[in-house]
Amino acid sequence: MKPERNLPVESPEVPGHAGFDNAERAVARLQELYRISTGFLCERFTEALRSGAPDRRYRAFYPEIRFATATYATVDSRLSFGHVAEPGTYSATVTRPDLFGHYLTQQIGLLLENHGLPVQVGLSQVPIPVHFAVANDSSVTVPQEGAAAFVLRDHFDVPDLSTTNDDIVNGYGFKHEDGSSPLAPFTAQRVDYSLARLAHYTATDPSHFQNHVLFTNYQFYVEEFEAFARAALGDPATGYTEFVGPGNQTISSPDAAMPPPAKLPQMPTYHLKRKGESGITLVNIGVGPSNARTATDHIAVLRPHAWLMVGHCAGLRNSQRLGDFVLAHAYLREDHVLDDDLPVWVPIPALAEIQIALQDAVASVSELDGYELKRIMRTGTVASVDNRNWELGDMAGPVQRLSQSRAIALDMESATIAANGFRFRVPYGTLLCVSDKPLHGELKLPGMASDFYRTQVSRHLLIGIRAMETIRGMPLERIHSRKLRSFEETAFL
């Protein structure tokens, strides 16, 4: 086998860079370039599997968007996105422009509107890994290392961890290798990696995800979500059109069968779809901050408009009762899974728009308001830990820290989800339901839990859905708060 450097390289013929002052035409060119490039790799890879080691290397490149300006544009300072801050050249590699068509059209359109300058669309210098190119073709599978009759990386590009990272969202002063500044928060390879992980962990195609995501830590919420979805499908006025579960099982009528899969994925996910991805996705992340981080790390590339945690927690105050709600306005982060990417000294602020939507939803569903609402809901600090059995250790240290923080509830996921929302600029919120009070002798025992689940889960889930429907009605510029933007930000959300 010849060394890679001695093999001739074959690439597909594609149109060169061109300027566009229309977002729809720019996205159409991105889709054309991506289709040609991935089609080329799929064809050559299939032929190599059939015929054996090729005599050359096959390489295709991600399409890219480039934008250059020589002036400081005067833009509406209330906007937190849709424009670049200073003169320079900006770029973003793009993958799956079919999946992200609406998002790309929207973001490019804002750039054109705010600056009055065209964007350039063409090929980047970043190769498409063959694994990601064939991911959209169910007839092609990349064999494991050593299973093919040739060394894969000698003839095709494979994923490169140096471009599959969060350097843009985590850093300051980031530049691409060509010196351009980032136009979008993620590189194409980072997006492709997360799309593959989402399909694996949730057993649903990323195309089904909606812009409003609910996270929970109990299967009981899934059952209630399916019941709500079936009722919604029976009422055309809701605008919901389909309900999708693991295995991409899809129903569009309230009485259609949806048998459970033989084996549930790690994070069972369900999508109540609506036009323009404006529906609601529910992800059962299970228990623990690691799962919470895994889910949000990957869902973030879909650029949702909001995600909320609606799960169970331990109430820390004697005045709380089982079934009471906790609206988090601050987080004590003892989960540790994000310490390297977002230090614990970084505050995670409450977002007014999300807080009001959640409080109004509690008031609407409970039919309580004002001072009376305090009977069933408290607003305060939620602590998240990484030890589910924290009660079994020496209680003096943990209890003192919880008291000093003024925490009113404790769980294992909420702070992680909120912190990753802050890190990825995804609006976030938390509404928990008290299921036990370990500091006050009320443990989560089987009999108590059954009664609690039966009476509270349906109402709690409905509150989360109502809040999301309120958020859906807000303008994007109101949801995506400037509080989530740093000194140096990408133009694209």
Description:
- It contains 13 helices and 18 strands.
- The chain has 493 residues and is α/β, with parallel strands linked by helices.
- It has 2 domains: 195 residues, 2-Layer Sandwich (amp nucleosidase, domain 1); 282 residues, Nucleoside phosphorylase domain (Rossmann fold).
- The protein has a 5-stranded mixed sheet. A 5-stranded mixed β-barrel has the order 14-17-16-15-18, surrounded by 4 helices.
- The protein is globular.
Number of domains: 2
Helical proportion, percent range: 25-40%
The assigned structural class equals alpha/beta
CATH class of the largest domain: Alpha Beta
Strand line-up across the major sheet: 2-6-4-5-7
How much of the sequence lies in strands comes to: 15-25%
User: Main sheet, how many strands, which sense, barrel?
Assistant: 5 strands, mixed
Q: Unreliable segments (pLDDT under 50, ≥5 consecutive)?
A: none
Mean of pLDDT: 89
Number of strands: 18
Radius of gyration, CA atoms, in whole angstroms: 24 Å
Ends: how far apart? 46 Å
Gross morphology is globular
CATH superfamily of the largest domain, by name, is Nucleoside phosphorylase domain
Question: How many H/I helices?
Answer: 13
CATH topology of the largest domain: Rossmann fold
**CATH architecture assignment name of the largest domain:** 3-Layer(aba) Sandwich
